[in-house]
């Protein structure tokens, strides 16, 4: 597969919800399914956790209400296993992408904590 052979993906994680400490069940379940379907993929359950609630970008009335990448980064922590995987990549699963601030923050957090080569986003939908 392109994900494993070309991109070097070996792990899959779910993006956290916007609410502090809330589990993103649908995305966690999808990660579990993907890892059980593809033997080269290891699921890291609950690896990313939101420590402080933020406004959902899709529900913000004004651009100024949307959390910045830095705000997301400040409120997301890595709770997964200690990994040093400089030649491998991680798939980040989220239900929807609005402006990419959450995924960018998750990407930065994962790269900082695991030294992974790349984070590949897998999104079910996109808001306008």
Provide structural commentary:
- This protein is of the alpha/beta class.
- It contains 4 helices and 6 strands.
- It has helices at 2-6, 25-37, 69-75, 101-114; strands spanning 9-14, 42-43, 48-50, 76-78, 89-97, 118-126.
- The protein has a 4-stranded parallel β-sheet with strand order 2-1-5-6, sandwiched between helices. A two-stranded antiparallel ribbon has the order 3-4.
- The longest helix has 14 residues, at 101-114.
- The N and C termini lie far apart (30 Å).
- The relative contact order is 0.23.
- The model has no long low-confidence stretch (mean pLDDT 91).
Task: Provide keyphrases for this structure.
128 residues; 4 helices; two-stranded antiparallel sheet; 6 strands; four-stranded parallel sheet; alpha/beta
